[in-house]
């Protein structure tokens, strides 16, 4: 059961504690469209999957990878996943 990982229930303060990133850094990654928290009444809410992704972003940044490069790779993975889904749907519809 992996669905809990994607529920957006964690506040930015807790995410900051879990990741070691400052709230400012987390908001910066949101501005750079690397992370997409839910918003309710002006409060950002993150998932455990978001926390894992933020740690990965931080590690990449420590290695010197630019945010635009991280976003490019992220979008490439999303497109590939979507393409695979379309191919699978195409073949399932023929069976």
UniProtKB/TrEMBL annotation:
Spell out the Pfam families in the cross-references: MerR_1 (PF13411)
The highest taxon in the source lineage is: Bacteria
Recorded GO MF terms? DNA binding; DNA-binding transcription factor activity
* Record key words, sorted: DNA-binding, Repressor, Transcription, Transcription regulation
Domain (HTH merR-type) spans: 9-77
Q: Which PANTHER family match?
A: HTH-TYPE TRANSCRIPTIONAL REGULATOR TNRA, REDOX-CYCLING DRUG-SENSING TRANSCRIPTIONAL ACTIVATOR SOXR
This one is known as: Transcriptional regulator
Q: What is the protein's species of origin?
A: Anoxybacillus flavithermus
């Amino acid at each position: 059961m992996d669905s809990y990982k994607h529920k957006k229930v964690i506040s930015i303060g807790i995410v900051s504690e879990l990741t070691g990133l400052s709230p400012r850094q987390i908001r910066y990654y949101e501005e750079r469209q690397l992370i997409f928290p839910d918003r309710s009444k002006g409060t950002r809410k993150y998932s455990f999957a978001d926390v894992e992704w933020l740690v990965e972003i931080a590690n990449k940044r420590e290695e010197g990878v630019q945010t635009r490069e991280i976003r490019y790779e992220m979008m490439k993975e999303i497109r590939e996943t979507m393409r695979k889904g379309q191919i699978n749907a195409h073949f399932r519809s023929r069976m």
